[in-house]
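Format is chain and fold; as here:
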Amino acid sequence: MGVNIKSEEARARKAAVEAEKNQREQREKEDKYWTEAEGSKSKAAKKKEEEAERRAEAAAKRAEAKKLAEQEEAEIEKALTKVDKKVNRVAVSAFEEAELQRLKKEKPGLTHTQYKDLIWKLWKKSPDNPVNQAGPS
């Protein structure tokens, strides 16, 4: 009897697939053996990873310190602004009292609001005004 060509080809393909599967399993076993022997990572890779972690921690600490410094600076600036506003209010009220007396003598008959407007215009130009004392920064 003759040989069936199709069945022979199928057996050959099946044998080739089986041989490839065995080779792959053999390679996986070898790779597994060597990774277990070396550890999951080499020493150099572990060292690089640890160094990267240290750098990240240092960067996080620097960022936190910078954030705290900015918060402190903002709080100090806020406190100084409050003090400046109080000093400014005191200076305005002292200037207002002195000028009100003078303006009432110079320009009698004006309403209180008109006196206040004149005083405010004078205050904007006055050398006693802290804004005018600051000068260009």
About this structure: The mean pLDDT is 86.
